[in-house]
Amino acid sequence: MRGAEAEAPLPGNRYQLVAIDLDGTLVDDQNAISERVERTVREVRSSGIKVVLVSGRPQVAALPIFRQLGLALPLISSGGAQVSDPSSGRVIAHFQPPVADIRKLVTLARAAGLTLVYQTPDEVFGEGNAQILDILRAAVRIPIEQVEDGLAACPEPIKVTVCGPRSQLDRIRDEIERLGLALSSVLSGPEYLEVTAQGVSKGRALRSVAEFLDVPMDRVLVIGDAPNDISMLAEAGLAVAMGNAPPEVQAFANVVAPRIEDDGVAWALRRFVLAPTKRGAQARSNDRNA
Predict the structure, then answer these.
(1) Which of 14, 106, 121, 171 is geometrically suited to a Cys-Cys bond with 59, CB 3.0 to 4.6 A?
(2) Domain 99-197 bears CATH identifier 1.10.443.10
Protein backbone atom coordinates (compact mmCIF):
# COMPACT_ATOMS: atom_id res chain seq x y z
CA MET A 1 0.00 0.00 0.00
CA ARG A 2 1.09 3.60 -0.60
CA GLY A 3 1.10 4.31 3.10
CA ALA A 4 -1.42 3.97 5.88
CA GLU A 5 -3.63 6.93 6.68
CA ALA A 6 -3.81 8.00 10.31
CA GLU A 7 -6.34 5.98 12.29
CA ALA A 8 -8.17 9.04 13.61
CA PRO A 9 -9.84 11.43 11.15
CA LEU A 10 -8.01 14.69 10.66
CA PRO A 11 -9.40 17.79 12.40
CA GLY A 12 -11.16 20.02 9.90
CA ASN A 13 -11.43 18.69 6.36
CA ARG A 14 -8.47 18.58 4.02
CA TYR A 15 -10.44 17.14 1.08
CA GLN A 16 -12.23 19.49 -1.29
CA LEU A 17 -13.05 17.03 -4.09
CA VAL A 18 -14.15 13.39 -4.00
CA ALA A 19 -13.78 11.26 -7.16
CA ILE A 20 -15.73 8.00 -7.26
CA ASP A 21 -15.64 5.15 -9.76
CA LEU A 22 -18.97 3.60 -10.74
CA ASP A 23 -19.02 -0.17 -11.36
CA GLY A 24 -17.80 -2.23 -8.41
CA THR A 25 -17.41 0.91 -6.29
CA LEU A 26 -20.54 3.05 -6.28
CA VAL A 27 -22.81 0.79 -8.34
CA ASP A 28 -23.32 -2.95 -7.78
CA ASP A 29 -23.79 -5.68 -10.37
CA GLN A 30 -27.51 -4.86 -10.48
CA ASN A 31 -26.67 -1.28 -11.50
CA ALA A 32 -27.96 -0.06 -8.14
CA ILE A 33 -26.63 2.31 -5.48
CA SER A 34 -27.48 1.36 -1.92
CA GLU A 35 -29.68 3.76 0.00
CA ARG A 36 -26.94 4.31 2.58
CA VAL A 37 -24.35 5.18 -0.06
CA GLU A 38 -26.67 7.55 -1.92
CA ARG A 39 -27.60 9.30 1.32
CA THR A 40 -23.94 9.68 2.26
CA VAL A 41 -22.93 11.10 -1.14
CA ARG A 42 -25.73 13.66 -0.88
CA GLU A 43 -24.57 14.55 2.63
CA VAL A 44 -21.02 15.10 1.35
CA ARG A 45 -22.32 17.48 -1.32
CA SER A 46 -24.46 19.31 1.24
CA SER A 47 -21.36 19.83 3.38
CA GLY A 48 -19.76 21.79 0.53
CA ILE A 49 -17.43 19.06 -0.76
CA LYS A 50 -17.42 18.55 -4.55
CA VAL A 51 -18.18 15.08 -5.97
CA VAL A 52 -17.21 13.90 -9.45
CA LEU A 53 -18.00 10.54 -11.08
CA VAL A 54 -15.21 8.85 -13.05
CA SER A 55 -16.27 5.88 -15.17
CA GLY A 56 -15.22 3.58 -17.95
CA ARG A 57 -18.82 3.65 -19.11
CA PRO A 58 -19.81 5.85 -22.03
CA GLN A 59 -21.47 9.11 -21.10
CA VAL A 60 -24.95 7.78 -21.95
CA ALA A 61 -24.56 4.94 -19.42
CA ALA A 62 -23.12 7.10 -16.64
CA LEU A 63 -25.69 9.90 -16.92
CA PRO A 64 -28.54 8.09 -15.08
CA ILE A 65 -26.32 7.67 -11.99
CA PHE A 66 -25.10 11.26 -12.28
CA ARG A 67 -28.71 12.50 -12.35
CA GLN A 68 -29.87 10.16 -9.59
CA LEU A 69 -27.30 11.70 -7.24
CA GLY A 70 -28.14 15.26 -8.31
CA LEU A 71 -24.53 16.01 -9.25
CA ALA A 72 -23.40 19.19 -10.99
CA LEU A 73 -19.68 18.78 -11.71
CA PRO A 74 -18.16 17.64 -15.00
CA LEU A 75 -18.65 13.94 -15.71
CA ILE A 76 -15.64 11.82 -16.65
CA SER A 77 -16.63 8.90 -18.89
CA SER A 78 -15.15 6.39 -21.34
CA GLY A 79 -12.17 5.85 -19.05
CA GLY A 80 -11.16 9.51 -19.29
CA ALA A 81 -11.65 9.90 -23.03
CA GLN A 82 -14.64 12.22 -22.51
CA VAL A 83 -15.14 15.01 -19.98
CA SER A 84 -18.45 16.81 -20.23
CA ASP A 85 -20.80 19.16 -18.41
CA PRO A 86 -24.18 17.39 -18.53
CA SER A 87 -26.04 20.46 -17.25
CA SER A 88 -25.10 22.49 -20.32
CA GLY A 89 -24.21 19.78 -22.81
CA ARG A 90 -20.72 21.25 -23.15
CA VAL A 91 -17.90 18.87 -24.06
CA ILE A 92 -14.85 19.91 -22.03
CA ALA A 93 -12.47 17.29 -23.45
CA HIS A 94 -12.78 14.55 -26.06
CA PHE A 95 -9.88 12.32 -27.08
CA GLN A 96 -10.38 10.41 -30.34
CA PRO A 97 -7.99 7.53 -31.06
CA PRO A 98 -6.47 7.31 -34.57
CA VAL A 99 -8.83 5.34 -36.82
CA ALA A 100 -5.94 3.52 -38.54
CA ASP A 101 -4.63 2.25 -35.21
CA ILE A 102 -8.10 1.22 -34.04
CA ARG A 103 -8.46 -0.80 -37.26
CA LYS A 104 -5.19 -2.61 -36.49
CA LEU A 105 -6.42 -3.35 -32.97
CA VAL A 106 -9.69 -4.73 -34.31
CA THR A 107 -7.83 -6.94 -36.79
CA LEU A 108 -5.75 -8.40 -33.94
CA ALA A 109 -8.81 -9.03 -31.75
CA ARG A 110 -10.86 -10.57 -34.55
CA ALA A 111 -8.00 -12.91 -35.45
CA ALA A 112 -8.05 -14.13 -31.83
CA GLY A 113 -11.83 -14.63 -31.93
CA LEU A 114 -12.47 -12.01 -29.23
CA THR A 115 -15.60 -9.98 -28.61
CA LEU A 116 -15.43 -6.24 -29.27
CA VAL A 117 -17.52 -3.38 -27.90
CA TYR A 118 -17.34 0.00 -29.62
CA GLN A 119 -18.53 3.13 -27.90
CA THR A 120 -19.15 6.76 -28.66
CA PRO A 121 -20.40 9.05 -25.89
CA ASP A 122 -24.00 8.27 -26.91
CA GLU A 123 -24.03 4.83 -28.58
CA VAL A 124 -22.63 1.35 -28.00
CA PHE A 125 -22.19 -1.45 -30.55
CA GLY A 126 -20.94 -5.00 -30.05
CA GLU A 127 -19.66 -7.78 -32.27
CA GLY A 128 -18.87 -11.32 -31.25
CA ASN A 129 -20.13 -13.48 -28.39
CA ALA A 130 -23.82 -12.74 -27.74
CA GLN A 131 -23.63 -14.02 -24.15
CA ILE A 132 -20.84 -11.58 -23.27
CA LEU A 133 -22.83 -8.73 -24.78
CA ASP A 134 -25.90 -9.76 -22.76
CA ILE A 135 -23.82 -9.65 -19.57
CA LEU A 136 -22.63 -6.14 -20.42
CA ARG A 137 -26.16 -4.97 -21.24
CA ALA A 138 -27.38 -6.21 -17.87
CA ALA A 139 -24.47 -4.58 -16.05
CA VAL A 140 -24.85 -1.04 -17.41
CA ARG A 141 -28.55 -1.08 -18.34
CA ILE A 142 -28.12 0.41 -21.80
CA PRO A 143 -28.76 -0.96 -25.28
CA ILE A 144 -25.75 -2.54 -26.96
CA GLU A 145 -26.62 -3.10 -30.58
CA GLN A 146 -25.11 -6.34 -31.85
CA VAL A 147 -23.70 -5.99 -35.35
CA GLU A 148 -21.61 -8.06 -37.74
CA ASP A 149 -19.04 -5.30 -38.26
CA GLY A 150 -18.57 -2.90 -35.39
CA LEU A 151 -16.29 -0.58 -37.35
CA ALA A 152 -18.90 -0.23 -40.09
CA ALA A 153 -21.52 0.71 -37.48
CA CYS A 154 -19.14 2.87 -35.45
CA PRO A 155 -16.23 4.00 -37.65
CA GLU A 156 -14.80 6.46 -35.08
CA PRO A 157 -15.21 4.94 -31.60
CA ILE A 158 -13.93 6.90 -28.64
CA LYS A 159 -13.17 3.63 -26.85
CA VAL A 160 -13.05 -0.06 -27.79
CA THR A 161 -13.34 -2.78 -25.16
CA VAL A 162 -11.84 -6.15 -26.03
CA CYS A 163 -13.49 -9.02 -24.15
CA GLY A 164 -11.96 -12.44 -23.59
CA PRO A 165 -9.56 -14.55 -21.50
CA ARG A 166 -6.84 -12.65 -19.64
CA SER A 167 -4.05 -14.48 -21.47
CA GLN A 168 -5.35 -13.29 -24.84
CA LEU A 169 -5.88 -9.76 -23.57
CA ASP A 170 -2.26 -9.68 -22.39
CA ARG A 171 -1.17 -10.72 -25.90
CA ILE A 172 -3.25 -7.92 -27.41
CA ARG A 173 -1.57 -5.42 -25.08
CA ASP A 174 1.85 -6.72 -26.08
CA GLU A 175 0.96 -6.34 -29.76
CA ILE A 176 -0.25 -2.76 -29.26
CA GLU A 177 3.16 -1.95 -27.79
CA ARG A 178 5.14 -3.94 -30.39
CA LEU A 179 3.37 -2.24 -33.28
CA GLY A 180 3.78 1.19 -31.72
CA LEU A 181 0.08 1.99 -31.95
CA ALA A 182 -0.97 5.38 -30.59
CA LEU A 183 -3.33 3.73 -28.11
CA SER A 184 -3.59 3.27 -24.36
CA SER A 185 -4.91 0.03 -22.89
CA VAL A 186 -5.94 -0.88 -19.36
CA LEU A 187 -7.84 -3.73 -17.77
CA SER A 188 -11.22 -2.83 -16.28
CA GLY A 189 -11.70 -6.40 -15.09
CA PRO A 190 -10.05 -9.78 -15.63
CA GLU A 191 -11.82 -10.25 -19.00
CA TYR A 192 -12.13 -6.66 -20.24
CA LEU A 193 -9.43 -4.56 -21.89
CA GLU A 194 -10.30 -0.90 -22.49
CA VAL A 195 -8.50 0.75 -25.41
CA THR A 196 -8.50 4.52 -25.91
CA ALA A 197 -6.34 7.23 -27.46
CA GLN A 198 -2.73 7.30 -26.30
CA GLY A 199 -2.29 9.06 -22.97
CA VAL A 200 -5.92 8.77 -21.94
CA SER A 201 -6.57 7.63 -18.38
CA LYS A 202 -8.91 8.30 -15.51
CA GLY A 203 -6.03 9.90 -13.62
CA ARG A 204 -5.22 12.36 -16.39
CA ALA A 205 -8.88 13.33 -16.76
CA LEU A 206 -9.30 13.75 -13.01
CA ARG A 207 -6.25 15.99 -12.82
CA SER A 208 -7.68 18.20 -15.58
CA VAL A 209 -11.00 18.50 -13.71
CA ALA A 210 -9.21 19.31 -10.46
CA GLU A 211 -7.22 22.04 -12.23
CA PHE A 212 -10.45 23.37 -13.77
CA LEU A 213 -11.96 23.55 -10.27
CA ASP A 214 -8.72 24.97 -8.78
CA VAL A 215 -8.42 22.06 -6.34
CA PRO A 216 -4.88 20.78 -5.57
CA MET A 217 -4.51 17.03 -6.07
CA ASP A 218 -3.49 16.57 -2.44
CA ARG A 219 -7.02 17.75 -1.58
CA VAL A 220 -8.64 15.05 -3.73
CA LEU A 221 -9.96 11.78 -2.27
CA VAL A 222 -10.38 8.94 -4.78
CA ILE A 223 -12.35 5.69 -4.38
CA GLY A 224 -12.02 2.84 -6.89
CA ASP A 225 -11.84 -0.91 -7.32
CA ALA A 226 -10.40 -1.92 -10.70
CA PRO A 227 -7.07 -1.71 -12.53
CA ASN A 228 -8.40 1.15 -14.66
CA ASP A 229 -8.73 3.14 -11.40
CA ILE A 230 -5.02 2.85 -10.55
CA SER A 231 -4.09 5.95 -12.55
CA MET A 232 -6.41 8.14 -10.45
CA LEU A 233 -5.58 6.39 -7.16
CA ALA A 234 -1.94 7.24 -7.87
CA GLU A 235 -2.86 10.94 -8.29
CA ALA A 236 -4.96 11.22 -5.13
CA GLY A 237 -4.26 12.96 -1.87
CA LEU A 238 -6.00 9.98 -0.28
CA ALA A 239 -6.43 6.80 -2.33
CA VAL A 240 -9.17 4.43 -1.13
CA ALA A 241 -9.51 0.96 -2.66
CA MET A 242 -12.65 -1.08 -2.17
CA GLY A 243 -12.41 -4.33 -0.23
CA ASN A 244 -13.52 -6.15 -3.40
CA ALA A 245 -10.62 -4.66 -5.38
CA PRO A 246 -7.89 -7.08 -6.52
CA PRO A 247 -4.53 -7.00 -4.71
CA GLU A 248 -2.78 -4.99 -7.44
CA VAL A 249 -5.34 -2.19 -6.97
CA GLN A 250 -5.21 -2.29 -3.18
CA ALA A 251 -1.43 -1.92 -3.44
CA PHE A 252 -1.92 1.63 -4.79
CA ALA A 253 -4.21 2.66 -1.94
CA ASN A 254 -3.62 4.38 1.39
CA VAL A 255 -6.78 2.81 2.78
CA VAL A 256 -8.85 -0.29 1.97
CA ALA A 257 -12.56 0.24 2.58
CA PRO A 258 -15.17 -2.48 3.10
CA ARG A 259 -16.54 -4.28 0.05
CA ILE A 260 -19.29 -2.79 -2.11
CA GLU A 261 -21.93 -5.03 -0.54
CA ASP A 262 -20.91 -3.56 2.83
CA ASP A 263 -21.23 0.05 1.58
CA GLY A 264 -17.51 0.76 1.41
CA VAL A 265 -18.06 4.15 -0.25
CA ALA A 266 -20.27 5.32 2.62
CA TRP A 267 -17.69 4.06 5.15
CA ALA A 268 -14.86 5.99 3.46
CA LEU A 269 -16.84 9.20 3.07
CA ARG A 270 -18.01 9.18 6.67
CA ARG A 271 -14.57 8.40 8.05
CA PHE A 272 -12.41 10.73 5.98
CA VAL A 273 -14.76 13.48 4.77
CA LEU A 274 -17.85 13.88 6.94
CA ALA A 275 -16.35 13.08 10.36
CA PRO A 276 -13.49 15.59 10.00
CA THR A 277 -15.92 18.23 8.71
CA LYS A 278 -18.21 17.80 11.70
CA ARG A 279 -15.29 17.74 14.11
CA GLY A 280 -13.88 20.92 12.59
CA ALA A 281 -17.27 22.65 12.73
CA GLN A 282 -17.66 21.69 16.39
CA ALA A 283 -14.17 22.98 17.18
CA ARG A 284 -14.93 26.33 15.50
CA SER A 285 -18.18 26.55 17.46
CA ASN A 286 -16.36 25.86 20.73
CA ASP A 287 -13.78 28.55 19.90
CA ARG A 288 -16.51 31.12 19.30
CA ASN A 289 -18.22 30.22 22.56
CA ALA A 290 -15.04 30.18 24.63
Answers:
(1) 121
(2) no
